[in-house]
Amino acid sequence: MSKTNENVLLVPGESGWEIWTGQGPTEFILHRATTTERAGDLTDIPNGDLLLLFPVKAITAVPMRVASEDDALFPDLAALHAERLGLRPDPMAGQLTDIFVIAREAENSAIVSILLRAPGEGEMPPRGPKGFDISPRAYPLTGETIAVWKEFGRWVFALSHQGNLVYCQATSVDTGSPNDNLAREIRLALMQLSMQGLDLTPTRIILWTRAEEVSPASLSAAFRLPVEISPRPAPALPSPLSKLLPADIRAARREALKRQNIMIGIAAVALFYLGLISWFGYGLWKDNKETNNLLKQAAAAAPDSEAYATHISRWDELANAIDLANSPVDILSRIASCIPPNSGLRLRTADISATEIKLMGEAPQLEAVNGFSLKLSKNTDLSQFDWQTPEPNQSTRGWEFVFSADIPAVEGQP
To answer: Is the separation of the CB atoms in 45 and 8 below 8 Å?
Structure first.
């Protein structure tokens, strides 16, 4: 095989992008580790078929259980679930979603939907990649495993079931060793999976790092499992490669700049001819066919600005998926912190999106419900929501409650 057919893999590393090269799907060697976090700033990328693995921070993983075994129905079912969570990928920004099967049962399947944030300025490499995937899929795991590693200075984790990716998440933890906050994020993810009917009992924890002094004590204590520490292995090309294919933002902007230059040129020529018209009179202007043609071109180009504004507004609809503060897991963590300790209060159902919350639960004592209601309304991390906490109903097991919240509409906005 000639060198021109060599695969070049861009992988998010601990402190910057890593460039790996190889002839086969599992024969990659590290060509260069950089400290560059913007793919657009990478230089001296080797020749070959370029493939890019998106970092975990660029995606949102949405695992779910669906009552179907038909792969053809998975995209529609995943889209409906994502819509309910307030996640709407911009259809103008390319193929930003893909679906991977976790497990199949009779008339029931567990799948994970991957939603990619549309790449921004400088987030694509100078040379257009031939294919795309996500970094967790480049490191196959076995059994029920938690894998933890760093990407661009922050800890990320992935959960697997029988070697299949179930969930992955980037955290804000940037400490030298995994700490209690990271363990809490993983526990919340496992709790959310359980609420969706995806029970995962980890039997193995892997910590990938090149640092010599790293303590796994927090992870080991949180899950009561030994932690295997080793350098992150060489990546393997996922098979089959994902369907992710973002639009070339750089090309779109170059095209917009080209149209802008054309319009400026047209306007300059039009002004020149209008000056001639003023000098030679209305009759010369009426007979000048070239000027009329330029004016028609200017009128034809006018709708481009409206189309561009529509594109930008659709792009902004992804704000709820991009902002980690709107993550249902993060909101659930804030809600859980309001439950009075040792009160016996528990949530039976929690429907959470970036703009709406509905909680159904029960407690043995009325004081626990009232305390929970008070803490929700006074929690500064939930201050953007307007809470409705009606009086609980007494049942045979104590007190049942249904609380809801939403973000009030801003005056002047729909």
So the answer is: yes
Q: Can you give the residue ranges of every domain in the chain?
A: 3-54, 56-117+135-233, 249-316, 323-406
| Residue 13 to residue 151: CA distance in whole angstroms | 5
Q: Residue 276 and residue 183: Cα distance in Å, rounded?
A: 75
Residue 85 CA to residue 100 CA, distance in Å, equals 19
**For 258-286, how does the pLDDT look when each residue is reduced to its tens digit (9 = 90+)?**
777 777 877 777 677 676 666 666 666 66
Determine the Cα–Cα distance for residues 325 and 336; give it in Å rounded to an integer.
15
pLDDT tens column, 109-158? 999 999 999 898 889 999 989 999 999 999 989 999 999 999 999 999 99
Coil/strand/helix, residue 157:
strand
Class in CATH terms, 56-117+135-233? alpha beta
Cα distances (angstroms) measured from residue 229 to each of 91, 110, 168, 207, 236: 41, 30, 19, 5, 20
Residue 403 dihedral angles phi and psi, to the nearest 5°:
-110, 145
Contact by Cβ (8 Å): 28, 21: yes
Q: Is 64 within 8 Å of 78 (Cβ atoms)?
A: yes
DSSP, collapsed to helix, strand or coil, labels residue 118 as: coil
Phi and psi, residue 65, nearest 5°: -115, 130
CATH number (3.30.1360.100, 2.60.40.10, 3.40.50.10540, 3.40.50.300) of 323-406 reads 3.30.1360.100
The set of residues, in sequence order, having a beta carbon less than 8 Å from that of 79 and lying 6+ positions away, is 97
Tokens at 128, concatenated: 């257009």
The structure's pTM equals 0.60
- Residue 281's SS3 state is coil
Q: What is the DSSP letter of 163?
A: T
Alpha-carbon span 271 to 276, nearest angstrom: 9
Locate 228 and state its tokens: 């295997």
Exposed, middle or buried, 89 (CB in 10 Å: 0-12/13-18/19+)?
A: buried
